[in-house]
Design goal:
The complex is a heterodimer of chains A (about 325) and B (about 300).
Chain A: H1 8-32, H2 36-61, H3 69-87, H4 91-112, H5 118-138, H6 140-143, E1 149-150, H7 158-181, H8 183-193, H9 195-200, H10 205-231, E2 233-234, H11 241-254, H12 260-277, H13 283-297, H14 301-312, H15 316-320
Antiparallel strand pairs in A: 1-2
Helix pairs in contact in A: 1-7, 1-12, 2-7, 2-10, 2-11, 2-12, 3-4, 3-5, 3-10, 4-10, 8-10, 11-12, 11-13, 11-14, 12-14
Chain B: H1 2-31, H2 38-55, H3 60-83, H4 97-119, E1 136-138, E2 141-143, H5 145-167, H6 169-179, H7 181-186, H8 191-217, H9 225-237, H10 243-263, H11 269-283
Antiparallel strand pairs in B: 1-2
Helix pairs in contact in B: 1-5, 1-6, 1-8, 1-9, 1-10, 2-3, 2-4, 2-8, 2-9, 3-8, 5-6, 5-8, 6-8, 9-10, 9-11, 10-11
The chains are: A mainly alpha (about 325), B mainly alpha (about 300).
Chain lengths: ~325, ~300
């Protein structure tokens, strides 16, 4: 009975409940936090949380270490921006188009890098991300280059945006939970842990790897599209490799391969970095050092440390029976 | 005669690329990882050179070896503190070593950039030149003294490295560890020390490359990004892990880019290299020269 605690489905359920608590806290925050500035910071931190969850799906669950999440956020932000700028298409079409567009590009990228692993995959996705950014910054006639593009806003109310982001975070989180609980999630974990083994057991590796790419990139594109309309300006800086570095930092510090980890990591890192901005801009030094320390010594991240204490508290026999 | 000028200047740029890329290739050859902090070794070399020469008033010629020592030291420290889990059989990412390497070196790159940004400042420095000359022409080729000297030093270093790897005892140990770590350690080679040595050499070469180019590039904290991306392209083009392949690919890329920038598009010259990288990895992952040159 008690060793059921170590089962994936049980750990996932606990993980999901913890993540729901975090979302509930976020939803309740406007009761206390009323200043538009602070709400804005929270909105941006939720944008990063979405990116972190998207990247974690690909890297943490499916084991594909892409270095392109920020590039997909940039693409997702540019699709509604360009549609509005050139053809006056409304956001109601533009944002879904951004999500579908990034999903298709992600799926294609997934097809292309299918055989590549580890460092090869990292280099290819890094090249893709940089090419996308260079092309967007240099096609001045079409994208207005580094000046950026003005995007119409969805609504004037900042609280409205806040709840929109909370709702999207909740939907993405729940979606991840249900996918990870299903067979697809198990297939991803199997591919992550042993791709050859997974294939030999009849898992359609091609299909599930490309699916992971498409879904992960769609989440990043969604995050980018929403962020674009919130800030009303999209620029190629959204796709900087630095942004990808921040997302990776958030996931690694929070706990890779979990539901709560990326969410908590993104909120903590972004809020703390806003706080440290006042202490002399040391935030990136602190977080990059933390990433190295966490990767070196605590692979499971903050959430893993919390969850591991629960398992340790079990009787020895149960823990050993895993 | 623009063609000759482009060709020669492309070759010179290729020499600088090679200095960066061979270190990356050696690290890949031995550990099978990409060091995403390689550009920061270059940045550290450039800064050491500029700061020692400007702040301490030392002659640039003395600052050059100091930059090399700083790079070697950083490389060695990085290996000692962060790379051991990749082969020493401990560490928490035991099944995801490749991913551990990506995260750690990427984090290290951000750390070093932001540390220098905070400590030294975000503004670019103008480095002192080794010799002060204006541009001059040899036949159709436009050159300047700094470039010529830097190219000469690079060529000498590359030849020295090639001889070191081929002939010296340490170089042969490096080759052995690259071919088979377990086998090498069974034959009595200290594979751990050899890996440290490789990181030190790699840091030294990258730092020297940064120091030699410091008068041209005016180092700022993120200056390493550009040469690092070039060396990823080169290492892939030359066959991951091959030092000879990397040397040839560097010269090739230098020349190709120099022509591409003039005849096709200046704005997209950086995207061009990355496109090559993607295409090679997808269609010819063994590199242009193939398996034959895959020995270190």
């Amino acid at each position: 009975m008690s060793d059921a605690r170590n089962l994936w489905s049980h750990r996932l359920a606990v993980d999901f409940r913890a993540a729901l608590v975090v979302v509930a806290v976020l939803a309740a925050a406007p009761i206390v936090v009323t200043s538009p500035y602070t709400l804005g910071i929270l909105i941006v931190s939720m944008y990063f949380a979405l990116l972190a969850m998207g990247w974690n799906l690909l890297a943490g669950f499916a084991g594909q270490f892409s270095l392109a999440p920020a590039a997909f956020a940039m693409l997702g932000a540019y699709v509604p921006g360009l549609l509005d700028y050139h053809w006056h298409v409304s956001l109601a079409v533009g944002i879904p188009a951004g999500i579908v567009g990034t999903a298709i590009v992600g799926w294609l990228l997934g097809r292309v890098v299918l055989r590549l692993r580890g460092p090869y995959l990292a280099l290819t996705t890094l090249s893709f991300a940089e090419i996308a950014r260079v092309v967007i910054s240099n096609s001045y006639d079409f994208t207005r280059g580094a000046q950026g593009l003005n995007v119409p806003t969805l609504m004037q109310s900042r609280v409205g945006y806040y709840y929109l982001f909370v709702a999207v975070v909740l939907v993405v989180l729940a979606g991840l939970f249900f996918v990870m609980r299903s067979a697809i999630g198990r297939f991803w974990l199997a591919i992550r842990d042993d791709e050859t083994g997974a294939e030999s057991r009849g898992i359609d590796v091609v299909r599930y790897k490309t699916l992971a790419f498409a879904l992960s990139c769609a989440i990043c594109g969604l995050a980018g599209a929403l962020y674009g309309t919130f800030s009303q300006l999209v620029s190629p800086e959204l796709g900087l490799l630095l942004q990808t570095g921040i997302v990776i930092a958030m996931v690694v510090i929070g706990g890779i391969g979990t539901l709560t980890g990326p969410l908590v990591g993104a909120l903590l890192v972004y809020l703390a970095s806003e706080w440290m901005r006042g202490l002399g801009n040391v935030q990136m030094i602190v977080f990059s050092a933390l990433v190295i320390i966490f990767a070196r010594f605590f692979r499971e991240g903050l959430w893993g440390l919390v969850a591991r204490r629960r398992v340790r508290a079990l009787p020895r026999a149960a823990a050993g029976a895993r | 005669m623009l063609v000759v000028d482009l060709f020669v200047n492309g070759l010179i740029v290729g020499l600088f690329y090679a200095l960066m890329a061979v270190g990356l290739a050696m690290i890949f050859g031995v550990l099978k990882i990409v060091n995403f902090a390689h550009g920061e070794f270059y940045m550290i070399g450039a800064y050491t050179y500029v700061l020692v020469a400007l702040k301490l008033g030392v002659s640039p010629w003395a600052a050059l070896p100091l930059a090399a020592i700083a790079g070697a030291l950083v490389g060695w420290l990085v290996e000692r503190s962060l790379m051991r889990p990749l082969y020493a059989g401990y560490g928490s990412w035991s099944i995801m070593k490749d991913e551990y390497a990506v995260v750690v070196t990427f984090g290290l790159s951000l750390f070093l950039i932001n540390l220098v940004d905070k400590v030294v400042g975000p503004y670019p420095y103008r480095g002192p030149a080794l010799v002060e000359t204006s541009r001059f022409a040899i036949g159709p080729v436009m050159l300047n003294g700094q470039k010529l000297i830097a190219a000469g030093v690079s060529a000498a270093l590359l030849i020295g490295l090639a001889l070191f790897i081929k002939r010296s005892l340490w170089g042969r140990q490096i080759q052995a560890v690259a071919q088979n770590r377990l086998g090498a350690s069974l034959a009595g080679i200290d594979a751990t020390r050899t890996t440290s040595l490789i990181f030190a050499i790699s840091g030294l070469l990258a730092a020297l490359s940064g120091a030699l180019l410091a008068p041209v590039i005016n180092p700022s904290p993120d200056v390493g990004g550009f040469p690092a991306v070039k060396s990823y392209v080169i290492v892939v083009l030359g066959g991951m892990g091959s030092v000879w392949g990397a040397m040839i690919a560097s010269l090739l890329l230098g020349v190709l880019e120099s022509f591409f920038a003039v005849y096709v598009s200046y704005d997209y010259r950086d995207a061009f290299g990355l496109l090559i990288l993607m295409l090679v990895l997808i269609f010819r992952p063994q590199g242009l020269l193939g398996e034959k040159v895959r020995e270190l």
